[in-house]
Amino acid sequence: MANISAIQKTFLAAPHFAVVGASKDTRKYGTKILKWYQQRSFDVTPVHPKEKELEGIQTVSAITELPSPKETSVSIITPPKITLGILEQAKNLSVPALWLQPGAEDEIVIKYIKENGLSDRVIYGGPCLLVEGDDIARSLL
Asked: Which CATH topology does 4-139 take?
């Protein structure tokens, strides 16, 4: 994996964000991450295949529906099997940066990242946006 700090800065410097894995359950991490963006006034879009809105924000059903995917960093809080499909879509859409929250990856996902030239765009294997996001955002000022 490329320098995590550099990817994190690229991630948070994007003008738009998307969260895959938010739900109506406010106890789940996907929703906590969506709220993290909201509380900091980031332009965020929840991605959900069934819900029309989450936390008062209109959703899109897939990242292929994002209005500006080349300018949107994507937080992924999904089981690894779903993560893999999202990574495939993100690669085709030229999404600049993705942050796999802990638990969203497994060996197959990591192998896909490495074999498809995504190591310089994907944060995985550790840090959580909820833990490190504010420090990274401050470093961009």
From this structure: Rossmann fold (3.40.50)
Angle of the 129-139 helix axis to the 4-12 helix axis, nearest 10? 80
**Could you count the other beta carbons within 10 Å of the beta carbon of residue 136?**
17
pLDDT for the residue 3: 57
Three-state DSSP string of 40-65: CCCCEEEECCCCCEECCEECECCHHH
Domain boundaries, the chain: 4-139
The residue that leads in pLDDT, 17 or 8, is: 17
* Model confidence pTM above 0.70: yes
Neighbours of 84 (CB within 10 A): 18
DSSP for 69-116, please give it. GGGEEEEE-S-HHHHHHHHHHHHHHT-S-EEE-TTS--HHHHHHHHHT
Among 67, 70, 59, 71, smallest CA distance to 16 is for: 71
pLDDT tens per residue across span 51-67: 999 999 999 999 999 99
State the DSSP code for 39.
Answer: H
